[in-house]
Amino acid sequence: MNTVPGEPFRENTLDSVFEGFKAGASWIEFDVQVTQDGVPVIWHDDHIVTLSEAGLYIHQEVSEISCAQFMALASNRAIGHRLVRQFAHAESREMLPWHCDDDSRGSPATFVDFLKHSPPELGFDVELKFFKDRPTTFAERQSYLKNVLEVLKEHVGDRRLFFSSFEPDVCIDLRRMQQEYPVFFLTTLQKVHDDARRNTLEAAIEVSQGAELDGIVACADYMLPDLQQNVERAKAAGLMVLTYGNANIEETHIKAQISAGVAAICTDRISAAVNAFTSESFLNHPVLEKKDQTMPKTSTVNC
Prior knowledge:
Blueprint: H1 14-23, E1 27-34, E2 40-42, E3 47-52, E4 57-61, H2 67-74, E5 81-85, E6 96-97, H3 111-117, E7 123-128, H4 138-155, E8 161-165, H5 168-177, E9 183-187, H6 201-210, E10 215-219, H7 220-223, H8 227-236, E11 240-244, H9 251-260, E12 264-267, H10 270-277, H11 286-289, E13 298-302
Parallel strand pairs: 1-7, 1-13, 7-8, 8-9, 9-10, 10-11, 11-12, 12-13
Antiparallel strand pairs: 1-2, 3-4, 3-5, 5-6
């Protein structure tokens, strides 16, 4: 994840995928949205934001523009537009130009590009992205999921893959539409959403059990205070537990989660996860020996 401008690689690009793989990640997490003309593309934010020559910030949902328009805007090739973003760790909270050390490493991509050109042994955590500021309709979800599944049908091959989403209705709909790929419910564990299903571990477990999902992906920062108890509650419900979050850049936190039975770690610091998963004290850990699970012996990286 790009948290400041000018990082070596742009997130959600093929360059970042290859860098993550070279660094030791066995799975890659990335974000899929669908353009107006039905093309799944790789993009994290709710909007693509550009600064016009007149000095105006222009916010557009990916679903409102064509794939060609998205590619031009995301690659900074659109005349009269400059790609900008609000960065989480920048000193300023203002919109800043979004670039990397070498802008040739920042080319946008489609889902097809990722499936065709990523290392075949690399697993995919496909996060299905929707809108924070408005609910989705049934028709929007069906159209979105239909386009994503059609791409998979043609291009997935033998790729290991699972889906995740913060949107509970998306997880429920996707499980109804297909059984081949695991589906995980993402949750922040913070009481900040109007949809109560997104606010607590109890709610995430209830949603996941009710829809026969495969597990939850929870924010590690809020799992850690009662880590063992939280993991055991989810596992008792028949659910795998994965985590993401700022805490996952620390090797000690990752080791604690391995001990507690967390199956996979999503991190921006791959070296910490690799060190933890290959530590002598964990080489024969039961979690890492379950070869038939979706994600044995696994670290992932946000790309």
